[in-house]
Design brief:
The chain is α+β, with helices and mostly antiparallel strands and 518 residues long. Among the domains are: 140 residues, Sandwich (Immunoglobulin-like), CATH 2.60.40; 98 residues. It is 37% helix and 30% strand. The strands form three sheets. Strands 2, 4, 5, 7, 8, 9, 11 and 12 form an eight-stranded mixed β-sheet that branches. A hairpin with a 5-residue loop joins strand 13 and strand 14. Helix 10 runs antiparallel to helix 12. The N terminus is likely disordered.
Amino acid sequence: MKQVAVLPLLLFILCTGLLIVPVMAADISMSAASSDYYFGFGESADIPIAIASTYDHDIDGTLQFSTTEQLQNAGTMMMSTKNKVYSHTVSPGDSQITISAGTSDVEKSVRVQVAYDYTNPSAIHVAMPEILIHFVAQPPQSSGSQAPVTSTSSAGTGNVPTSSSVQIVQQSVSSQQQSGRDGSVQQALSNGQLAQDTSALKEQLQNEAKRAELDKAAFEEALSRDPLLASVNESLAADGFTRASQATNPESGTAGTFSQEYRNAAGESATVAGWMENGAVPSVTETSTAQVNVTAPLAANTTYQSAVKQLTEQGFSRNTSTLNIAAGGGSMVNLTYQNSQGKRAFVNATTDDTNVTQLTVAVEHDAPFDYLPVLAAIAAGVVTLIAAWVLYRKFRQPGAKVLNLVPTATPREPFDHRNAARDLLAKAEIAYGKQQYPDACGLAGQALRLYLSWENGVCREMTNTELIVFLRSINADTVNVRTIFDRCTDVEFARGTLSPDEFPQMVTSICNLIDGEK
């Protein structure tokens, strides 16, 4: 009888859990396996960062990455600080990024700070605890503290710098620290060797700081003259937006990545991000929750106008706009609409410099799934099984076998991104054989994006711009990938044609990447 008495308590706990689940707030968190990492000389200090999002949609934001190197010699300590900023989209569920502190041929420590800022609808700052990276001659078998570190979230934006810089801080090391050195170091100091090393190191850092400042100034000057950015700025100004901030990460005076934030009088924001190469910006990605202007060819398209009118009459309003705009006039536009019940609609279009080449409109057929009845049914089933088990144990005959009433879950087969990419390539070759060249190049580019994003732990398809910026952030070679993307985009947007052997060579290059060949 005491066993049966626990059933009401179990039912109460299960029902209470059902009431708690729906009110949990969605958020984004980041974590790393440890707060200390050790790498040998010449090793690339790559650290995986796990990201978990409980939102049910993509979140666009800014990833900030700061490194501070501490170098100490002859009673002097100097620090070099570098900051990088990237636009980054976090998908629902679990994903991963990789941060890199580069390599070193000398013993030193690098302090790393990672943060993510996004707005949904208010500004939220997600900050990781500081991670310490050690470059040593002989890394220990155990990589320091194995306790994982997890981010914290707070309202507003953080204090992580939003532009690249190099800082030099010089301060004296205490006499107690100095006296703790061994005799060989004291002897070298007396000979002036360490003083010379410190002077050379200081001069090197000063030259690096000066070069970084010159590159930053030249890079931002080139951005201000770029015709594509001028066009985007003009379009946003027509919508009432003015530029509020700019974050740049130059690799030189003519190459690097950037992100610009615009705001209007109502406090709404828009973000423009991209990269520069050889002094020109090939394309940018414009993202906003406001109803910004779409490209001129799409705005003038009668089919698009009719679709927007119909969605408006059905109670839909636009809540997210993403425009991937190329310098040659082509663009890919993705618009998301939502009604008061949370039902969404999507308008996706591809344009060249004058016409709309592809337009699709899709509306979610069903309202968001109501999981409460299912959970209640599961809870009732569990309670019934427990009650049946208790009664069976009470009245069963000796020697009877207890049946396993809970079915075994069927394991879910993991997604094979390599085969999926090969299937897309096969479809691309079929389209090419039918002389459907824009479709063939579009499928080939999609295959390459799918493979590279899943292979690097992102686990979602990215735009060309997002993928190039991400690959740069992990120090991957982007020359061949960028060439394939550019050629696919040219043909897909009708800005170029393929030579007879170009497409087969492109497919071979993608196959070699998928198969792990050079």
